[in-house]
Amino acid sequence: MLIDTHCHLDSSRFDADRDAVIKRALAADVRHIVIPAVNPDNFQAVADLADRVPGGAYALGIHPMCVPDASEADLELLDEALEARRDDTRLVAVGEIGLDFFIPELKTDHAVRKQEAFYLAQLRIARRHGLPVILHVRRSQDRILKYLRQQPGIEGVAHAFNGSMQQAHSFIDLGIKLGAGGAMTYERSRQIRRLGAQIPLSNWVLETDAPDIPPAWLSSKTDQPPRNEPAEVAGVARTLASLKNMALADVITQTGQNASRLFGLSSTTQ
């Protein structure tokens, strides 16, 4: 089954037509949509949205881009929210968490130290609550791996993975799936397409990162930054099937099983 393992459906870019976006996803046979939070301010929003989306699920975490404005109290809020929702079957992960070494203001010594502290703290929180993680890995693969090795046994997804073959296998060895999304649909993205072709399908899950990382067929239609949406995960599946020279149905089945096992998702849309 088709599963979008990473979709910011609560984004304001969907405010005008969110119900239509959800309907298009259902029409594309998307059975589950995982909606990650970015800070405590949207914990309730993603939980409420997951509750009203057929097959909706959510994750709670503090995004590295939100870390500069975060405090220790926010980590406590995350821990408390996870505990309060421990019986909510739609809560499936801690995320989106990780490290971002691309944005200039996040690359200063102070910003990096704070990012790393929050990332490690959230790994420990995820381990304590027995939840997988959704990892933001932006030019930070080796540092992400360093802290994962310090917290063995945590499973999860390396969202929008675009590292080397060696780094990919290091994530896989630690129990982390690789997220295939819009970047893989561009012919110029040779590295991620090589990974898609060569790394076994058992290690992949599908995602959109909607409204961001639009696939190639959307970007070619407009001069303006296009808006991605969860229905496009079907096209990501087609791309991965083409790269692997596999039947589309097999790609959908295997990646769906990978995501279902990782996040505890049911085989039927709720």
Could you give a quick summary of the protein structure above?
By secondary structure, the protein is α/β, with parallel strands linked by helices. It has helices spanning 18-27, 43-52, 72-84, 109-129, 141-150, 165-173, 190-198, 216-219, 233-244, 248-263, and strands at 2-4, 30-36, 56-60, 91-100, 133-138, 156-159, 176-180, 204-206. The two termini are 14 Å apart.
Terminal CA distance reads: 14 Å
How do the helices and strands follow one another from N- to C-terminus?
Answer: EHEHEHEHEHEHEHEHHH
The main β sheet shows up as: 8 strands, parallel
E-strand count? 8
Helices and strands in order:
Layout: E1 2-4, H1 18-27, E2 30-36, H2 43-52, E3 56-60, H3 72-84, E4 91-100, H4 109-129, E5 133-138, H5 141-150, E6 156-159, H6 165-173, E7 176-180, H7 190-198, E8 204-206, H8 216-219, H9 233-244, H10 248-263
Parallel strand pairs: 1-2, 2-3, 3-4, 4-5, 5-6, 6-7, 7-8
Helix pairs in contact: 3-4, 9-10
Describe this structure in words.
It is a single chain. The chain is of the alpha/beta class and about 270 residues long. The chain has a single domain (about 1-265), classed as TIM Barrel, CATH 3.20.20. The protein is about 40% helix and about 15% strand. The protein is built from 10 helices and 8 strands. It has helices spanning about 20-25, 45-50, 70-85, 110-130, 140-150, 165-175, 190-200, 215-220, 235-245, 250-265, and strands at about 1-5, 30-35, 55-60, 90-100, 135-140, 155-160, 175-180, 205. An 8-stranded parallel β-sheet has the order 1-2-3-4-5-6-7-8. It is globular, with a radius of gyration of 17 Å. The two termini are about 15 Å apart.
